[in-house]
Amino acid sequence: MNDGGEAEISVDRPEPVTVVIVDDHSIFRSGLRADLGDGIRVVGEADAVDSAVEIITRLHPDVVLLDVHLPGGSGGGGAEVVRRAAPAVPGTRFLALSVSDSAEDVVAVIRAGARGYITKGSSGSEVTRAVYAVAGGDAVFSPRLAGFVLDAFGAATGEQAESIDELDRLTVREREVMRLIARGYSYKEVAGELFISVKTVETHVSAVLRKLQLSSRHELTAWALARRLL
Amino acid sequence: MSTSPIPPRARVQRPPLARPRECVLGGVCAGVALHLGWSVRATRWLAAGLALCGGAGILLYAWLWAMTPLEPAEPGTHGLVHRRVAVPWALFAIAAVLALVVFSLGGGFRAGAVGGSALVPPLTGVIVCAAGAVAWDQLVDATAPRTETAARWLRVVSGALLVAVGVLGPLVWGAAAPGWAWVLFVIALLAGAGVLAGPWALGLWRELIAERTKRVREEERAELAAHLHDSVLQTLALIQTRAGASSEVARLARAQERELRDWLYSGERRIDSDLVTDLRDTAAVLELDHAVRFDVVAVGESRERSGGELAAAAREAMLNAARHAGGDVSVYIENARDGVDVFVRDRGPGFALDDVPADRMGVRESIIGRMRRAGGSASVRPGAGGAGTEVRLHLAYDDEGEAE
């Protein structure tokens, strides 16, 4: 059934987005596979850390849909997959899948290099949209992740970056964008509200993602430590 | 016919045999005297006289003590027993006197005036009385009004006395002490050490046990959480995906997931709930009754209480969104230093405030009016791009004190 579907898609679109699904539940993998849109081709699946690293480095997919909690490896779950596989596949983007809708669960994976996260309760079209966004180089920010960022960077208490290069705090604009995303605005609505282009919004979001990954703020490092201990 | 009612009445008037809570030693004599209608003083003398008859009075006293109940406590009191004689301290005093006897006998023994067997009775007495003082204090006087400090002092002096007898006794008596005495010296030393270090060791032991129990429980919980996470939560997520976001089944699955997650990860819930917890609970309840999915995001440390006007207005806004818009609704709570903002944004058909008839109290009164009365502000406007409605509630803190 899947083979027929894939053949059809590849005729329609010469260059579909190739995806590898990494999740230790086969039911969830097959459900997700059936739900993804026509422009997405699932080229492989994996159910543990080691097999995921092997398949990703062999297939070089555009996007990896990566469960946060995975068995195998040295117990690092999704974050470990990103750390081990990313250097070998520079063109591949990682999108974290989390059964939880709390941003804290996925921060470790995002800091390892994932471009964002979606919850497992999201509909097929939401996942599809997120896959496209990540494949196009954008970050996928949920309201909750935006809220976490505002908290972690002290934006709620008025901390503010002096220059764009500063990694440990948000700029005024970034903070505005994050606040609107936390209020449930789409990128397009954020752009309309702030009178800037969607492209600019995406730039801000990517900048925030970069800070989230590289910052050594205590709130973020403490988090990573706590998670690893669990 | 005329004499028959008298004996029952006489029996009824006799008070029940019970020990009073205000007493000298055990309350036995007073209780018996009251029961039999005797004089308390005479009863005491009788008991003392019997005690001299080979200890029969002491046995009778102990037997009555054991078999007679305390009189019922008066309502409103703690039922404490007030004794006029401080039994533990009396016992300690006897032990101290006997200890002096032991030491002085030692001197007499050295001088050849006393035989070795004379050592055993006072030495046994020291051990029994000193240990008895502590035991009485801990067990019998547990219902008496006593302070923790007094109990500790009694323990320390009794333990010290026992240790002193155990250590100094052999020095005074020397190698000439009879074999029995050596056993008693060792027992005194051990009892003293036990009395002194007992509570501390007991506390340490209890702490150790409590810690171990806690760790085991936490491990079990983590294991259970990992298992449920891998099975049940995944399945619930899958159900939500397959059943369509706003279907009945998906709503049930989502509510169930939320409950399970709360139980698994947040541990015990705080009784004192804040604004954020309150709105999350509201979201969970509304999701069950309406075809709606709330995404509640909170930023900053919540300082607003749940019972406040702001929480009530926010709940009303959420209820409106659930009723009239449905679908995905975003709730964003921003706690800043100088105030708190709540945004409720839906993607429903939207409405303008002017279109609402003046007699409809919902928005005008329960949201805008309520916020104004609480000293804050509220605005209702179309969402970004003209889609849906966004309610913004703002409440500024007057000063730091009010926020506490």
Q: How would you portray this structure in words?
A:
The complex is a heterodimer of chains A (230) and B (404). In chain A, strand 1, helix 2 and strand 2 (40-46) form a beta-alpha-beta unit. A 5-stranded parallel sheet of chain A has the order 2-1-3-4-5, with helices on both faces. The model of chain A is unreliable at 1-13 (pLDDT under 50). Chain A is globular. Chain A contains 11 helices and 5 strands, in the order αβαβαβαβαβαααααα. The termini of chain A are far apart. Helices cover 52% and strands 12% of the residues of chain A. Chain A has 230 residues and is of the alpha/beta class. Chain A has 2 domains: 2-139, Rossmann fold; 144-229, Arc Repressor Mutant, subunit A (Orthogonal Bundle), CATH 1.10.10. Chain A has helices at 2-12, 26-35, 49-59, 77-85, 104-112, 124-135, 143-152, 172-182, 187-194, 198-214, 218-229, and strands spanning 17-22, 40-46, 63-67, 93-98, 117-119. Chain B is an alpha/beta fold and 404 residues long. Chain B has 3 domains: 1-84, no CATH class; 86-221 and 259-269; 273-403, 2-Layer Sandwich (Heat Shock Protein 90), CATH 3.30.565.10. Helices cover 60% and strands 11% of the residues of chain B. Chain B has 13 helices and 7 strands. Chain B has helices at 6-13, 28-36, 40-52, 56-67, 87-110, 120-139, 148-173, 179-243, 248-265, 275-289, 309-325, 362-373, 400-403; strands spanning 22-23, 82-83, 292-299, 327-335, 339-346, 377-382, 389-396. In chain B, the strands form 2 sheets. A 5-stranded mixed sheet of chain B has the order 3-4-5-7-6. In chain B, strands 1-2 form a two-stranded parallel sheet. In chain B, strand 3 (292-299), helix 11 (309-325) and strand 4 (327-335) form a beta-alpha-beta unit. The A-B interface holds A 24-25, 27-28, 31-32, 35, 69, 99-101, 119-124, 142-144, 146-147, 150-151, 155-158, 179-180, 182-185, 188-190, 192-193, 230 and B 222, 229-230, 233-235, 237-238, 240-242, 244-245, 250, 254, 257, 261, 295, 297-300, 328-330, 332, 334-337, 343, 345, 383-385, 387, 390.
